[in-house]
Design goal:
With 451 residues, the protein is α/β, with parallel strands linked by helices. It folds into 2 domains: 114 residues, Urease, subunit C, domain 1 (Roll); 307 residues, Metal-dependent hydrolases (TIM Barrel).
Length: 451
C-alpha cells in the first residue's frame, strides 16, 4: 500500500495549501496534544476497570490522567469543566475499521484498504493511513478516540495499525504501527458465490470447498516454512559475514514477527467449521490468533461455540451487528446473540465497524447486541473500551479511566449506546478536540436557509 501523495505534498505545494481550507479544519489532524491541564468536576465517572464513581472528578495533566476519584486536587490554572448531570467514559475503540484507508470506496484513488495480489505480508496499513480522512471527525463526535485500521484483499492482506484519531501524521497518531497480520481464512464450506469473471453464480459443494481450502492451507504452511528458513539464514548471515549475501525478501521478512510470536494472525472466519480449522492451523504453526467474525457461526449452538473459544483462549472481534445470518437456516438473531453468549462464557471480544463511513455507528452496533442479544450494558461498554485495548495489546495506555493512562475519554449527557445521547466533550491524549465534522459544518451552513 502506497502512501497517498496528496498527504505528503500538502506541506510544500502552494496549490495544495490553497486547497486546504476547502477540506474543513475538522478533517485535518491537530498535531500533538497541547500541554494543558483540565479537571472535569461533579460528573459520573465510568472507569470500566472498576466500579463507577457516581459523583467525582478526573484530572488531566500533560496528556494523561493524573487523578480520578470522588475528591481530587486539581493543579493551579487547570481549566475546569462542570460535569454536573454528565458522565465520563473512556474513549471507544473501533476494533477493526477502514478509518484512514477509505474515503470513497468506489473511487480507487481514495481507497487504500487493499492492494493487488494474494499474499502481501510486507504491506502496512500504517503507510496508507490518511490523517485527513473526513470520516475521522465524524467518528470522534460519537466518542470514538482510537481505531484499528485493517487492510483487506487476498489471503494475507498485510499489517494492522492501531491509531488515535488526532494528529497531522500517522507517525503522531499510531499507538502500534504493526499490531497483527491480517489473514482471510479459506472457507471449507460450499455454497453460492458470484463470479465476476463470468458474471454468473458459482455453486460449490462442501467437499469441493474443503479440497480447495486444504490446498490453500498447504501453500500457506509452505510459505511459513520458507519464512522460518529465511529468518534463520538472515540470523546466520548477521553472525557470520563470510556467508554468501542473501537476496532480500520483504514478504518473508515480514512474516518473522508472526512466526516468533510477536504479532498475532488476525484471522477472518465465520462458519464455525472454518473457525475450528483456523484454530487447528494456528496451533500447528504455533502462532497467536485473534478471530474476526461476522457472528454467523452456521448451524451450531452458540454455547458450544463460546465453550470452544474459551478453551482455546481465542479473542473475537465482531463485525457490524446490522446484519442477518449468512445461512437461511440459522436463527434470525444469531449475530446479535453471539456477543452475549461469549460474555457468559468469559470469552474476550470487541465490536468493529469494518468500515470508514459507518465507524460513527460503532456504539449502536454494540447496542444491537444489548437490545436483541441479552448482552449487558456494562459488558457492551467494556467491549467498546477495555476489551479491545486488551486484545490489541494497548491496555496499558488506553481503555479505562485510570491514573497514568492517556487521557482518551469523552463526556456525554446520557447513555452512549443511545442515539439521542450527545457527546459534549472529547479528549485524545489530553487535547480537547473540537466536535466539528464536515456534516456539522454543512448543517450550520444551511440551517439558517431553511424556511
Amino acid at each position: 500500500m502506497k502512501r497517498r501523495m496528496s498527504v505528503r505534498v500538502a506541506a510544500v505545494c502552494p496549490l495544495a495549501l490553497l486547497a486546504l481550507p476547502l477540506l474543513g479544519t475538522a478533517a485535518l489532524g491537530s498535531g500533538p496534544a497541547a500541554a494543558e491541564s483540565y479537571v472535569i468536576e461533579n460528573a459520573r465517572l465510568v472507569t470500566v476497570s472498576g466500579p463507577a464513581i457516581e459523583k467525582g472528578s478526573i484530572v488531566i495533566v500533560d496528556g494523561k490522567i493524573a487523578a480520578v476519584g470522588a475528591t481530587v486536587t486539581a493543579p493551579a490554572g487547570a481549566k475546569r469543566i462542570d460535569g454536573t448531570g454528565l458522565s465520563v467514559y473512556p474513549g471507544m475503540i473501533d476494533a477493526a475499521s477502514r478509518l484512514g484507508l477509505v474515503e470513497v470506496g468506489s473511487i480507487a484513488a481514495t481507497n487504500d484498504a487493499s492492494e493487488i495480489g494474494d499474499i502481501k505480508p510486507q504491506l502496512r496499513a500504517f503507510e496508507s493511513f490518511n490523517p485527513a480522512n473526513e470520516f475521522i471527525p465524524m467518528a470522534r463526535i460519537n466518542g470514538i478516540t482510537t481505531a484499528v485500521s485493517t487492510p483487506g484483499g487476498g489471503l494475507i492482506a498485510g499489517q494492522v495499525v492501531v491509531a488515535d484519531l488526532d494528529g497531522y501524521s500517522i507517525e503522531q497518531m499510531a499507538i502500534r504501527p504493526s499490531a497483527a497480520m491480517a489473514l482471510s481464512f479459506p472457507s471449507g464450506v460450499g455454497g453460492e458465490s458470484f463470479d465476476f469473471a463470468t458474471f454468473s453464480v458459482k455453486r460449490s459443494s462442501d467437499s469441493d470447498a474443503r479440497k480447495a481450502r486444504e490446498k490453500r492451507l498447504d501453500d500457506l504452511a509452505g510459505l511459513f516454512d520458507r519464512a522460518r528458513s529465511y529468518a534463520k539464514a538472515v540470523k546466520a548471515r548477521a553472525s557470520d559475514p563470510t556467508l554468501p549475501p542473501l537476496e532480500e525478501d520483504l514478504g518473508l521478512a515480514a512474516l518473522e514477527p508472526v512466526l516468533s510470536g510477536q504479532l498475532p494472525l488476525f484471522v477472518a472466519a465465520n462458519d464455525f467449521r472454518d473457525v475450528k480449522r483456523a484454530v487447528e492451523f494456528c496451533e500447528k504453526q504455533n502462532v497467536k490468533m485473534i478471530l474476526r467474525s461476522d457472528a454467523s457461526f452456521g448451524p451450531f449452538d452458540l454455547a458450544a461455540v463460546a465453550s470452544f473459544l474459551k478453551e482455546k483462549k481465542i479473542a473475537v472481534i465482531f463485525g457490524p451487528m446490522y446484519t442477518l445470518p449468512s445461512d437461511e437456516d440459522d436463527r434470525y438473531d444469531m449475530p446479535q446473540q453471539a456477543p452475549g453468549a461469549l460474555a457468559r462464557a468469559g470469552v474476550p471480544f470487541a465490536f468493529a465497524s469494518e468500515d470508514s463511513a459507518m465507524a460513527k455507528d460503532l456504539p449502536y452496533q454494540a447496542a444491537m447486541a444489548v437490545a436483541y442479544g441479552g448482552l449487558s450494558k456494562d459488558d457492551a461498554i467494556r467491549a467498546l473500551t477495555l476489551w479491545p485495548a486488551t486484545i490489541w495489546g494497548v491496555a496499558d495506555r488506553i481503555g479505562s479511566l485510570e491514573v497514568g493512562k492517556q487521557a482518551n475519554l469523552f463526556v456525554t449527557n446520557g447513555d452512549p449506546l443511545e442515539p439521542r445521547t450527545d457527546v459534549k466533550y472529547l479528549f485524545i491524549r489530553g487535547r480537547n478536540i473540537p466536535l466539528v465534522s464536515r456534516q456539522t459544518q454543512l448543517y450550520d451552513a444551511y440551517k439558517s436557509r431553511v424556511p
